[in-house]
Amino acid sequence: MRAVRIARHGGPDVLAEADVTVPTPGAGEALVRVTAVALNNTDLWTREGAYGRPGDPKALSGWRGSIDFPRIQGADVAGRVVSVGPGVDRSLVGRRVVVDPAIYDADRPDANPVGLMGSERDGGYAEYVTAPAKQVHDMAGSPLADDQLATLPTAYGTALGMIERGRLRQGETVLVSGASGGVGLALVQIARARGARVLAISSASKLDSVREAGAHDVVDRAEGVVEQIRAVAPDGIDVVLDVVLDVVAGNLVSEGLPLVRDGGRWVTAGALGGHAVAFDVRRLYLHNVQLIGSSMHTPAHFELLMDLARRGEIAPVIAATFPLHEAARAQEELARRRHVGKIVLLP
Q1: Rounded to 5 degrees, what angle do the CA atoms 240, 214, 224 make?
Q2: Does 217 lie in the same domain as 82?
Q3: Which of residues 217 and 246 earns the better pLDDT score?
Q4: pLDDT in tens, 284-301
Q5: How many domains does the chain have?
């Protein structure tokens, strides 16, 4: 089969197409023919080795540690099951599916992800990929197209994990940073569906697209963000869903904490703008504000997400599609951050 692999950390030039053997599903696994695989920032950072390690933030590393090279990238897979390994119900063969890409620390609904397909095991930049059968979800009844289904695992899974961990409730006011990206748009859609009032931060050229996704108000990230938020939400924010950690206008954490209501929650799931921040800790303990880290999703979160997709209650936005052999060009386009929605490879 054709696959795109990395043999070392580096720039887009380390992505190389190769002929490799179709993997054989082991016990408890399924073999999926990949029809669509979405790109994520995790692809860029894994390729670059940008995650660092505990005690050594500058170390070259995959999502959770050293990578066994060569590695096939790609966490977000939609496709069809073509065969199964020992111990798997053969009725799964032929099903249209989405793969949960997480490697979990336990076999329970609230397990934590400790690895990721495309980093700690081979992923979907290929014609075929294997995955644990229990993490291959039947999507036969979903109205979403395959390219839309492929956008769900990392972006929408991360978004739903943030919303669940932040305990967002109907009627609350939520602020979404980085709202034009894959996770940001997912947050806007899911929070709106939950009955929240959704405020969003985005760049001027993307404000209309974020409104179309469901945001009630959108503020320009280059025009005094905190002042704009105060103007549209004078009573404060219940939940901040922070995808980028900080923004061009300044450190959103230090400047934005005073905007959070007593008992509010600040959920962070990314560090696009920088991983080192400073803030006044009194804004936390004097107002019972919780600062919550959120990495991807649990198995229970993923089941909730698949139910939303089966009912067509979310509508992923596709920014562009590329053939598999143009994976490097697709990653370059992702890194430019000029798009709204998700970029997808079609093997």
Answers
A1: 50
A2: no
A3: 217
A4: 889 999 989 898 999 999
A5: 2
Length, in residues, of the chain = 347
Same domain, 108 and 139: yes
pLDDT at 247: 35
Q: Is the pLDDT of residue 246 over 80?
A: no
At 78, which CATH number?
A: 3.90.180.10
Q: Which tokens belong to 333?
A: 């386009």
What confidence score (pLDDT) does residue 272 get?
A: 59
For residue 250, what pLDDT is reported?
A: 39
Same domain for 17 and 143, yes or no, is yes
Q: Is the pTM of this model over 0.85?
A: yes
Segment 96-109, tens digit of pLDDT = 999 999 999 999 99
Report the distance separating Cα 266 and Cα 175, nearest Å: 9
Query: What pLDDT does 273 receive?
Result: 57
pLDDT confidence bin for 244, thresholds 50/70/90: low
Question: Structural domain of residue 223, as residue ranges?
Answer: 167-293
CATH of the domain at 195: 3.40.50.720
Nearest to 43 by CA among 85, 79, 84, 15: 15
